[in-house]
User: Fold this.
Amino acid sequence: YTLLFCLNNINNAFFISTACSNTSQLGIIGEDVMLPCNCEMEENIEYLVWQIGEHRVVDAFIKGKRNQDEQDEEFRNRTKLFFKEKKGNCSLQMSLVSIADEHIYTCIYETSSVNQVHVSLQVAANYSRPDLQLLSEPKIEGVAKTYTCTTKGGYPMGKIHWLLNNQALNVTMDARHDTDLRDNITGCYNLSSSLTLKLFKSDVLSCSVENPRLQDTVHAKLVI
Assistant:
């Protein structure tokens, strides 16, 4: 593999020590994300390579210019390096982030030693504001009714919570039914929960959708 072979030759010829660090980054699906790699203390960097594992090259800066000959097809026209514009900034910008981009990325830059920064990229997507509706209106008064709470386009798998008058509802399995569907293209989740119970006038029924990775919750409520 041409680029990695070149880099290995450099390591063998000039290698003194290897400095490694690890970090993580969160990207929003469909948006840009910056994978940080700070090399501001190094003035004479000739080789900068971003890669996944040992063989997938994401982007590279070789001997004074950007080298995309060995770039993985999945990253073509989606990445940007700032090293030539701003010395000391070895970060990588990636556009149109998707679930398929979840990897551990390695930033390797060469001075008198080999330096590596490992960046673990996780991605997420916000769930839509839930749609809370009365599913059916029984003709008989004073009986239990079924309510549905639906939300779309979130990642990773979220969780729907039901509340009555701002208190968490503990209901039997027979009274609640949850479903989740995953979009074949985006990989995001559409969630739905139905709840059957008897409510009284002035009760406030709410549902909330929790995204654990974003630590975010969206709400909807229905006043009876």
The mean pLDDT is 85.
